[in-house]
User: What shape does this take?
Amino acid sequence: MDFQWDNCSQEIRDFVHNLLIETSNIIEGQVIGCYLHGSLVMGGFNPDRSDIDLLVVTEQPLRIKTKRELAQFFLRSSKKPYPVEISILNLSQLENWQYPTPYDFHFSEYWRRRYEEELQEETALYLNDDEKKDVDLAAHFMILNKYGKCLTGRPIRQVFPAIPASDFLSSILEDYGECLQNILVKPVYCTLNLLRVYWYLKDGTISSKKEAGEWGAEQLPEKFHLVINQALKEYGNANTTTLFNEKDLFELRDYVNNNVQELL
Assistant: This one.
C-alpha cells in the first residue's frame, strides 16, 4: 500500500519530526523552515522502498563543522527505517535564483559511501566550503511550490521562488537522459520517470511517478500497457520482483523518446 502525508502512519510522522528536531539542533537554531516534497506529499509513498524527501532553509551558510555533524547524523539515521534525501540551502541561495542551483549540504543514500570514507579518513573532498550546485533542485522546488508541505517555519511561498519553466524543463531532462540509458538497470524508476516527462511536455502536467504510470497505462497504445502495469505493480509493492522483457522496455523507451523529441 502507498501513502501520502495526510494518511501515513504515526511511525513515519515521528521519524520525520525527529529528523527535523535533530537537524535543527545541529544547525543551532538558524532554521527558517523545513519542507516536505516528493512521493510523501504527491502520493505513491511506499514505506518499503520510497525516500523521504526534505528541504531545509537556513539564515546563514553552514560551517564545515556543521556539515560534518549533519553527515554523521544522516549516516546513522537514514534507512532506519526509511531512506532520507535532504538538501539544505541558505536564504541567499534562494533570493538570488540560479540554475543549476547552489546548496550547502546534501545527503542521500547515493552519497553514503563517500561520506563514510570522508569522515573515516578525515578528508575534505565533499564536506568543504566549495560552491556546489544541483540540477535537480529546480524540479524539487517546482514540486514543492505545487504540492509541498511546510512542516515548520515560514510558508513555502515566502521562502521559495517561482521556478522558470525553462529551468524546470532542463532539470527534469537531466534525469530523463539518464533514464534513457539505464532502463534495463532500473526499469521501474526509469519507465515511470520517462512517462512523467512525456506527460509534462504533452499537457503541462506535473505528476508523481505513480500518476504518470497510471496515465501511460490509459493513454499510450495498448501494446505498452503490460510493461507499464508491471512497473506500477512493482513500484507499489516492494515484495514484487518483476522479470521485465527487454524488448518491451526498449520499445516503450523509444516510443516515448520519439514523442518527447517531437514535443521539444
Observations:
- The chain has a mean pLDDT of 95.
- Residues 166-263 form one domain.
- The longest strand covers residues 31-37.
